[in-house]
Amino acid sequence: MDPAYSENVVDYRSLGNMPGYEWKLLRYKCRELRLEGVYHRHCHLVSVAVVTQLIIVIEILMLIHVILLFSVVKDIDFLNVLPYLAVMLLTPSILMPSREPNVEQYEAIAILVSCLMALLLTAMDLILPICYHRPFTLVPGYDHVVIVLVYLMFPIAFVENGRAYFLGLAVSLFYFGYMVLIDKISTLDKVWELTAYGAYLFFLNVLCMFLSRFQEYNMRNGILSRYQVVYQNLVFQLAMKEEKALLDSIIPVTLARSLQDAIASHIEEDPSNLIPFTKTRHLFMEPHPEVSILEADMVDFTSLTTTMEVSELVAILHELFVSFDLAANHNRATRIKFLGDSYTCVTGIPSYFPTHANACVNQALDMIEISREVSKRRNKKIDLRIGVHSGEILAGIIGLTKWQFDIWSKDVDITNRLESSGLPGMVHISSRTLGLLDNHYVFEKGTDTAKLDPLLQRSNLSTYLIRSRLPNFEDADDMEDDNFSLNDYRFSFSFSEDYEDIQVKAQRDMILEVEHMPVNRVQACKIRRPMHRIAKEDINEEYRFNLESYYLFTTFRSWKMEWSFSKMRDLLMKYSLGMMVFAGATIIAMDLLVKSEAMDYTMLLSLFLIILLPLLLASYKKLWLRGRRLSPITQPTFFLSRWIIKASDLIEKSVFVRIPLAIMVLFLLYVMSSETFSCDIARLELEIINSELHNLRPQMLCFMPWGVTYAVIIVLSLMLVIIGIPLIIKLGVGLAILGCHVITVHAYYGFAFERSQTTDIGVSSSLAHSWYLLAFFILVVVREGYLNYILKASYFMSMCFEKKHELTKVKTRTIKIIMANILPTHVAEVFKVRRRSDQLYYENFSQVAVMFATIENYEADKLGLRALHEMICYFDELLVNYQAWYKIEKIKVMGWTYLAACGLDVDHYTDFSVSVPVSTKRESDKLQKSGSVRFAPKDDDEIMIKDLHPTQATTNEDDNTVLVMTEFALNLLRIMRDIRSKGIFFEKDSKLTGSLKIGIAHGPAMAGVVGLSKPHYDIWGHTVNMASRMTSTGVMDGIHVTESTANVLRDFNIRCTYRGMTFVKGVGQVPTYLVDLDENLHFQQHSPDNDSHKGSKVSVHWLDEKRTER
């Protein structure tokens, strides 16, 4: 699997832009990710938890009903309360088998238990009217409750093949048959009344079928959300493992941790700034008092660069350095760096061991032997000069960006002198190192050159040459095993196998994770698990959620979190509006069926059309998406269609639109159901009085009382399908509807409702209507409270994971910043994922401008590392301004020499080491200025340079790298000038004021990583050697360039002065030039007829403009 995989499996925006029902899309996704088993297990656990809730609901309803009967019925017959008491006693016993989460044949048990409960509740509601009270026409009091329970809370609702709708329809038919039985169908009006009741039952079934789909959507959404969290956590842990492994291979662990801590503090203080230590320049160093240092260099390497292809030369270097790294691991040596053909390593770090001198000399002898083998195999003359010295060092990094682990000390300089004054094929050691060795080596006096070296003389050191070990030499006991090979030591950060298995791991983790997902406020299913099997962090999450929310309405204590939850998109809103329209149609149909006289149907239809309009707007996008997927390319062409799609999006995502819209529709539906706008009260009262005087059944001219109550139940049931509205608002609207109807029943139309049928003997009809509504409202409150808890608990758990993710992200971000300051990002990715441990990684570039800048004319002992660090930091700060089209890449710092290159094609990756996010207009302006390279001094006059622009015919696109690099070199000179003028590091009156010698060359080059451990990005080729020689043979405070580079600068109207023929080792005499600068460090124009006294200033804004035009 691709390690960059980060798809959000429940991305609401993309899910809403796809054709098809959302729950079906999530179903397909679960099957694709092989999470169906996890989903069914979650359904099982939810079913077990809901059983407890179901028992509580039924017990509460029955208890209130019994109390109500004893309160309002005089001389109550115990037979009237017996069915309700029986339900209270039998319900726990019947449901108990379905509360076992791990029982076999659970599906069969769930179906059987659900059927028994449906039979029990239906019998409780109808057995007395059928068997004992046939003279009374009692209407069912719990038909609506039983139907909703079947679809939403009975165990059958959570079984894969339960087919709850069969049971729901069976219960509905039973109730409808009962109504046919008790009503004597003598007139056509009775038929219409029964038909209206059938329409009411049909609506409840259809509504609950939709609710079961909504329930599936919420549960699958919870599963996929948790899977996304688990998957991202695994990917993130693996990515951090890779980053950490690569980082630990480059920088010692203690130094890496210090860097991470410092950068983490920097991120907390200034999260928007990705450049660490811009305010405080930390110097990360570790002292090591007793170590041995090895410095190796290839003899006559310059001639090899001129006689061999760069790729062949780099391949040889890679082969050598891989073998050297293997030997270093065997000898417990730590490779520090390589500079072109030189190789530096140290023994005794990061942990001291007493035989470090022996280990270092053994490493040197092994390297000589390796070079001879490669020389023989390659048929090339490859010799090494090696110096070894023992002493103390400071190890660490310097600068702001592009760090390289390095060592500094006087003893390091001594080692370099030993190498340069040594002989090929021998190890040149100091007397201090010899004193630490045992008697296992063949040695002789050192070279005459070393005797004349001033540094060695001042240090009072004599030198010796080691040819080989004694024949009876054996490794010390603390050395590694001899049987060591590349197969034993794999510097491989290839975690591709882990990435391939990560989805399998996520699926396996989900099997455990589903056991911890929230299913109920009391977490009934978890209480039944042994405490030792409950994850500690799971308990913490539940405990934290209970602390962070109020119990009554499961409202977050933090209003920000509550508001964030409320703002979530509601992709089911269009279906909710569809059910509202269906509810309006059902109410109109029931009115048409039960009315005996004409009424104002124009008003009803007008209200219905108003309700229909939001549905058309909300569902338009889903209808338009049939057969296609919404994207910027597939947007509709007609402007009205685009606006309607935007309106659909707005209804889904804006809580300010959803809430008023839902309240308005529910209010209009209640108006349609209550019919208060069309009834003539005086006429209705007169008709009832006349009917009673003549002992006739009163004719309800405006409405049928139970028909109105059924219509209000339809309105209240819609609260179950509105997901994206806060629970408090829904309960408030429900209470308002309930209160209005109770007032209507008991006050406004009490004379009509009192003369309707009742549900229990001795209970007034008005009270029966009220309890019928209240019982259903209690069920709605319990159901909505449960759903609200589940959604908010899942959201809270996701937020907890997000916080953990952010904490881990900060840690990983610190590693990324460190890595980005060591290797280019694309190179680090190659090493983490695809590179074999012994595979050469390189890139060829046709035109690269290379610059060496060496700080000279200073006293190193007096200034110290702090001064070097500060000056390199100044240079690195300047580097930030060169990250546009022609980016300058800092390669490394070698002692007091700064190496950079322009033209390395690294635009295909994001450099975290120097990129700064833009958040304000001021920052945007700043970035825009730095996006184009300027030769103007920051405090000087801006001169229009339209006459200085070269023509396109005289310049090559690739030559722009030379222009950019030369401008960077000029700004380095200006920085050193400012350092001297302000006396920051150098005394103003001193002759040692610090100067830069800069050399630039351009041409083809190769960049890449060689060696087995501590990968470091480097460049090779004749161009690099020429730039180095331009520096070593250059002048103080000047820019020394080759003839080809001078010709390019002339094309850009920059004057270059011929210096003469300069000897370059390995090449011979070559013509070189100095870039012409005035006393203010401005470029001089090349045009001979321009005698401006202000000097020249070349801007290359036109480079960006030219690229844009192309």
UniProtKB/TrEMBL annotation:
It is found in: Membrane. Keywords: ATP-binding, cAMP biosynthesis, Lyase, Magnesium, Membrane, Metal-binding, Nucleotide-binding, Transmembrane, Transmembrane helix. It catalyses: ATP = 3',5'-cyclic AMP + diphosphate. Its EC number is 4.6.1.1. Residues 292-419, 845-1031 form the Guanylate cyclase domain. It is a multi-pass membrane protein. Residues 1085-1110 are annotated as: Disordered. InterPro entries: A/G_cyclase (IPR001054), A/G_cyclase_CS (IPR018297), Nucleotide_cyclase (IPR029787). GO terms for biological process: adenylate cyclase-activating G protein-coupled receptor signaling pathway; cAMP biosynthetic process; intracellular signal transduction. Its cofactor is Mg(2+). The keyword Chloroplast does not apply. It comes from the Eukaryota. The chain crosses the membrane at residues 45-72, 78-96, 108-130, 142-159, 164-182, 194-212, 571-589, 601-620, 655-673, 703-724, 731-751, 771-791. GO terms for molecular function: adenylate cyclase activity; ATP binding; metal ion binding. Pfam families: Guanylate_cyc (PF00211). GO terms for cellular component: plasma membrane. Gene3D superfamilies: Nucleotide cyclase. Belongs to the adenylyl cyclase class-4/guanylyl cyclase family. This is adenylate cyclase. It comes from Drosophila mauritiana (Fruit fly).
